[in-house]
Amino acid sequence: MSAGEKAKAKAEQVVGKAVRKAAHAAGNETTAAKGAALETRGKARDAKEKSKDSFKR
Predict the structure, then answer these.
(1) Angle ∠(1,6,47) on CA atoms, nearest 5
(2) Residue 54: pLDDT band by 50, 70, 90 thresholds?
(3) Which residues contact 19 (CB under 8 A, 6 or more apart)?
């Protein structure tokens, strides 16, 4: 996994989690859902990169 892609995936996960928790605490469910989607996208990107790495070996 390239360092840049790994950093992007981790950043999406962290930002998504922060947005989701802050929006949920404020009672804004629409923004909480967007944060959850961002977090999920980061996890999917991470899984994609890990699967690419497994085929390279």
Answers:
(1) 70
(2) confident
(3) 31, 32, 34, 35, 38
